[in-house]
């Protein structure tokens, strides 16, 4: 549909490519024109860090705050105990309360880089849904909330339907997740005046449930907005790379590796990613995204610097760029490369080069490392590595060695 937004936030969402769908464009627009409106996104605490796949949602919250509204980061201390079944083939492993609290503590570090928390009108709030979910009385909940949900309708949602169509088990525990998420929205509206829930387009059914429940139980008017589920132009899911998830916490992925992920963006994705993940003006994003040939590399460096600067700070972005330049242009080692430090006991009588490639994160398995060597994609100290049976001993590590996978991924190995 063609809609001409009045509010700054909806305008930004539309022009920068964040918007997949909205439950009521005009209603949301008019609500946001009042300013200071709370909106939320929920994040389940299934790991100690979020990864790049969540960055589009974090940027939506950042823009909500930058346009004078109040972002709420809802931590799923309660819902993580159940697990979201949306578009998953199997049930998530259940975590205990301590593991969930540890994960929430790790995730909090990321949000503070993007949002300003405090008590002001547009300051962000961090809320844990365990506040209201942990104390629910099951029979009261069934009577007061469960009666508003139609099983027929719940079965029709694509996230459930796709699982059942593939004859994959969907536990009753998971089936309850969408009811709990709907209840979250109602509670946030009742407690904090929250008018908006955002999420990826796979959350559409859950969001609509929350809107319906809020209207039925407390006669509240709330809205939903979804972002597209992002894949790269070559069809890969955002947030994953050859060496695993692209984590946002620096203790799980170094700023250099994070920078390098964005520097390796496919040409066709540069303009789109600049709009989504940076705050550069839209016309500048389009200009950089239209560059061709060797010029597009400068745009990729700008992309990597802008995104790394937002998360890890401008100094980390500058250091990563300088390290990359030293490694790629001058054939040097670079001070900020990912480094694997081995002890004498790790090394023993020697360790195979295949194991080193895996341990340094340049390959996900021994099989992948051997294939890398067989296809002439591995290098040792910038020289082609052709012997998959090579053993590295203490003598070989008397000074650090550099391993490379292709032209753009490198790691140091040293003896501690």
Question: Brief description of this entry?
Answer:
The protein is an alpha/beta fold and 416 residues long. 44% of the residues lie in helices and 14% in strands. It has three domains: 8-227, HUPs (Rossmann fold), CATH 3.40.50.620; 254-329, Tyrosyl-Transfer RNA Synthetase (Orthogonal Bundle), CATH 1.10.240.10; 339-415, Roll (Structural Genomics Hypothetical 15.5 Kd Protein In mrcA-pckA Intergenic Region, Chain A), CATH 3.10.290.
Describe the protein:
β11 (378-380) and β12 (383-384) form a beta hairpin. α10 crosses α11 (204-218) and α13 packs antiparallel against α14 (282-289). This protein has three domains: 8-227, HUPs (Rossmann fold, 3-Layer(aba) Sandwich); 254-329, Orthogonal Bundle (Tyrosyl-Transfer RNA Synthetase); 339-415, RNA-binding S4 domain (Structural Genomics Hypothetical 15.5 Kd Protein In mrcA-pckA Intergenic Region, Chain A), CATH 3.10.290. It is built from 19 helices and 15 strands. The chain is an alpha/beta fold. It is globular and about 75 Å long. The protein has a six-stranded mixed sheet with strand order 1-6-5-2-3-4, sandwiched between helices. It has a five-stranded mixed sheet with strand order 9-15-14-11-12. Strands 7-8 form a two-stranded antiparallel ribbon. The chain has helices spanning 8-15, 25-32, 55-66, 97-114, 130-133, 138-144, 151-156, 158-165, 172-175, 177-192, 204-218, 255-263, 270-277, 282-289, 295-312, 314-329, 344-347, 353-359, 366-374, and strands at 21-22, 38-43, 70-75, 125-128, 196-200, 223-227, 240-241, 244-245, 339-342, 351-352, 378-380, 383-384, 391-392, 401-405, 409-415.
């Amino acid at each position: 549909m063609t809609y001409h937004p009045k509010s700054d936030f909806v305008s930004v969402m539309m022009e920068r490519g964040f918007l997949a769908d909205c439950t009521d464009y005009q209603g949301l627009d008019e609500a946001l024109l009042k300013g200071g409106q709370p909106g939320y996104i929920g994040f389940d605490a299934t790991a100690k860090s979020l990864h790049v796949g969540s960055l589009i949602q974090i940027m939506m919250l950042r823009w909500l705050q930058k346009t004078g509204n109040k972002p709420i980061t809802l931590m799923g201390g309660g819902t993580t105990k159940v697990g979201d079944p949306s578009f998953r083939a199997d049930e998530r492993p259940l975590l205990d309360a301590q593991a969930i609290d540890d994960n929430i503590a790790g995730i909090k570090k990321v949000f503070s880089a993007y949002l300003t928390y405090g008590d002001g009108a547009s300051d962000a709030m961090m809320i844990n849904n365990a506040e209201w979910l942990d104390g629910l009385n099951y029979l009261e909940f069934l009577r007061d909330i469960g009666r508003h949900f139609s099983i027929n309708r719940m079965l029709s949602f694509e996230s459930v339907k796709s699982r059942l169509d593939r004859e994959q088990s969907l536990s009753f525990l998971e089936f309850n997740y969408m009811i709990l998420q709907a209840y979250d929205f109602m509670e946030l509206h009742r407690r904090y005046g929250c008018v908006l829930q955002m999420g990826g387009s796979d959350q559409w059914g859950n969001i609509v449930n929350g809107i319906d429940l809020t209207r039925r139980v407390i006669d509240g008017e709330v809205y939903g907005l979804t972002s597209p589920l992002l894949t790269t132009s070559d069809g890969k899911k955002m947030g994953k790379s050859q060496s695993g998830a692209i984590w946002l916490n620096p203790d799980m992925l170094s700023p250099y590796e994070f920078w390098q992920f964005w520097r390796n963006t496919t040409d066709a994705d540069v303009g789109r990613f600049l709009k989504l993940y940076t705050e550069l003006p839209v016309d500048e994003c389009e200009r950089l995204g239209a560059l061709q040939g060797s010029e597009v590399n400068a745009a990729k460096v700008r992309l990597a610097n802008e995104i790394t600067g937002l998360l890890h700070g401008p100094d980390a972005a500058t250091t990563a760029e300088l390290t990359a330049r030293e490694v790629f242009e001058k054939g040097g080692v670079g001070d900020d490369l990912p480094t694997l430090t081995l002890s004498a006991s790790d090394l023993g009588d020697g360790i195979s080069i295949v194991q080193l490639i895996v341990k340094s994160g340049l390959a996900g398995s021994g099989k992948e490392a051997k294939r890398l060597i067989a296809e002439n994609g591995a290098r040792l100290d910038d020289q082609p590595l052709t012997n998959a049976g090579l053993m590295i001993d203490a003598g070989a590590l008397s000074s650090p060695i550099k391993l490379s996978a292709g032209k753009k991924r490198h790691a140091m190995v040293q003896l501690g």
